[in-house]
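Second opinion, please. Please look over this fold, written as tokens:

===
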Amino acid sequence: MAVSSRTPLLAFVSAATPTARAARTRLEKRYGAVKPAQADIIVALGGDGLMLQTLHRNIRRQIPIYGMNLGTIGFLLNTYKETGLLHRLKRARKVTLTPLRMVATNTRGRTFEVTAINEVSLLRSSRQTARIAVAVDGKKRLTELSCDGALVATPAGSTAYNLSAHGPILPLGAGLLALTPINAFRPRRWRGALLPRASRVDLTILDPRKRPVAAAADSVEIANVAKVTVTEATDIELTLLFDPEHDLEERILKEQFAP
């Protein structure tokens, strides 16, 4: 962990739950606290949603983030414990994540650029199925995908919405992205694709006014999209810190054998 020998400056952020807020108060009193912009390390207290929110808020600061789970699943967080935090931070291993960049154009011609750590997803906004043309690196792969939607997931996000949509779990070092349909109707046997991480995925909505589709980059949603382009945001690196016994790569592997 690239932190000097002095005691690191810590910033604490928490979910809005009473438990997380109380824990933040106790930890700030015990270890001292600065604002996130002044910190060497940000300590996030909550669940995976809070961790994603913290990553997004500090996406350009290049500050390592160490999470402690006070939520439900806590896939991206360590076990909560108040004592020995500085020792744990000193021993922590870092994992570097590269997010996705979504460029979405709506039916009025307005363009939005949003970053996604887990996935970019498209979902139909009416009772009618979405009709989507799929191209990879400029080559059309599916002339028409009839579905409830589709998503592109990072390895870190492959165990989230992607897994719920029956997409593959990707090891962190696989160098791949998952392109996964959501309830595909046609082609009936298409189950998605594994793509090199450098791929450019173009998703063009066919008849977007009759069959409206919304696009979401993690929790940011754009309504009535006409086209969505997804690439890896190679100019952004996010650093998470994990206890040695809480190995993220191992957790992702274990998910593939979960009952």
